[in-house]
Amino acid sequence: MKAPHEYLSSNIVLIGYRGCGKTTVAKELSALTGKPYVDTDDLIKQNTGKTIAEIFCDEGESQFRQYEKNVITELAQQPPEILSVGGGAILDPKNVTNLRTIGTIIWLQATADELRKRIEQHEATTSDRPALRGDNPFDEIANLLAERSPFYEKAAAHIIESTNLLPATIAKRIVELTNS
Ligand code: ADP
Ligand code: MG
Known about the structure:
Blueprint: E1 12-15, H1 22-33, E2 37-39, H2 40-48, H3 52-59, H4 61-77, E3 82-84, H5 93-102, E4 104-109, H6 112-123, H7 137-155, E5 158-161, H8 167-179
Parallel strand pairs: 1-3, 1-4, 2-3, 4-5
Helix pairs in contact: 1-8, 2-4, 3-4, 4-5, 6-7
Bound molecules: adenosine-5'-diphosphate and magnesium ion (MG).
Residues 16, 18-24, 84, 118, 121-122, 162, 165-167, 170 line the site of adenosine-5'-diphosphate.
């Protein structure tokens, strides 16, 4: 018999560096609670008919940021119960304001080493995101993570150190957080 769904007492917004597990945890949370999840990258893909990698290549990062900002503005009008957001969105304060109106923001933290492993593993199965650039992907991740961490921390209501946790465990912890 299927277990009863867990109750989520507020909408959840997942933020964090690319590869930290936002989409994976959003899916787990959706399975656990029976609520649908929305992913900003998915909406941008639907709206443009392009992959994120194609948008970066054809139109540039600033155009991607504009699409992302538009999507987040629209979502604030009709908040989804579970939302995962692209890794750079919180650099824009308007996005953070909108995300706060959508729900409880949770930063899925992970070490640069773990992020590199997860991104490389993910890239082996999908070419959806811009490839890691440069000769040393670890340095790129470590530098960007250091640059962005203060923004993630400031935007988040809760931080979950995800490096050694399974996605299903993280989803359970999020349910507990919102009910405590
Ligand atoms: P994001 O949406 O934050 O970019 P994804 O959810 O796409 O990240 O996850 C990136 C990769 O890392 C995927 O291959 C996924 O299976 C893996 N992954 C996600 N969360 C975890 C975790 N907690 N532990 C181990 N691997 C994970
Ligand atoms: Mg994702």
